[in-house]
Amino acid sequence: MKTLRLLHRWSGGLIGLLLAVLGLTGALLVHEDAFLRATVPHAADAQRQDTATLAAAATRIFAAQDRPRSIVLATERKGLHKLSYPGETEKGAYADQDGAIVQAWTSNWARPEIWLFDLHHHLFAGDVGDIVGGIAGLFGLAFVVTGLILWWPTRRMFHLRLWPRMMKRAAIVHHHRDLGVLVAPLLALSLTTGATMNLKWFSQALRAPFTAPSVMEKASAAPRIKGGKLAPDLDWSKVIGQAQAKFPGAEVRTVGLPAKTGGLIAIRLRQQAEWLPNGRTMAWFDPATGAMVAARDAQAMPLGSRITNADFPLHAAKIGGLAYRLVMTVSGLALALLGTLAVVTFWGNPSGLPKRRKKVAAKQSRVKIEPAAEPRPENV
């Protein structure tokens, strides 16, 4: 138990602040749509999903000289389309549902929700940040497990407090243990789903009992069909109408142009039973003719793939309405508080010894021990 406590303390002291940052940014991002509705024109507009409106917006947006690579369409909670551009990862824009640009940016720092997401998901470090964040999530899971083990002998001292009784080490440690136990299920959920999204091997390991990784990869692969050159006057009503006819009742979520020559137009849809906000139901089209060449029903994917598709909506509170958003907000704020106070108490006293014991130990180390005097020889 002593070794476990030592590992828990030192690990928390070293990466607690990172977990705190992830928790705080995650709690803020849960309310991104509400922030946009309050600050960006047309973000509070009602969602329109009729073929004519979607086709008109796609025609206008893709006809621009500086056209985007893809469009993420408006939702029930956010009445704006989000545009992403090729080759410039930091360039983006919001457009209203008629296709008119409302706001555009060329740097992630121009929009708070953009740089917050970059910090939360990538730690401002791209793919390396993904790996670091995933590993931090695994450490967080280890903290949850070891924290429960360390709390068990002190369970009779449990007190429900949102804040330490006093800002002294003993009170903070007591509060840390009790709050950690209280939110352990929420932390386990958010940390697990976060780690699975960032670490492919971890996700595959968890889903392997349900579906082999090779089967999941094959089910998620795009069709190997070569498309023609993108037609300048492509009939977007025809393209979007075919997708809606293939999956009646599904919500059209994204429209993407070919990433390279010979690629296909890709449309993502979300069927009613799908939790993922942008769905995993797909339809692919020849850019030259607008004819549908392939489709994929997300509900027919292997079980492991369907479980994987639930990671993001569970992690980002994209299901369950306001109640679940508040639950995940509590999870993020609790992680921020636990991580911050863990760092404060650790670096304020890395040894973990009470101040009185530390003073005694320091005093004993300063005591000079004199060698014993040799006995005098007796006079003969």
Q: How are the secondary structure elements laid out?
A:
Layout: H1 2-29, H2 32-39, H3 51-62, E1 70-72, E2 81-84, E3 92-95, E4 101-105, H4 112-122, H5 126-151, H6 169-182, H7 184-198, H8 200-207, H9 213-220, H10 236-246, E5 251-256, E6 265-270, E7 281-285, E8 292-296, H11 303-308, H12 311-315, H13 321-348, H14 355-366
Antiparallel strand pairs: 1-2, 1-5, 2-3, 3-4, 5-6, 6-7, 7-8
Q: H/E series, N to C?
A: HHHEEEEHHHHHHHEEEEHHHH
Q: Runs with pLDDT <50, length 5+?
A: none
Mean pLDDT: 90
Helix content: 40-55%
| Domains (count) | 2
Structural class: alpha+beta
Q: What is the number of helical segments per DSSP (H or I, 4+ residues)?
A: 14
Distance between the termini: 63 Å
Globally, the shape reads elongated
Main sheet properties: 8 strands, antiparallel
Beta fraction = 5-15%
Organism: Caulobacter flavus
Protein name: Peptidase
Biased composition (Basic and acidic residues): 367-380
Keywords: Membrane, Transmembrane, Transmembrane helix
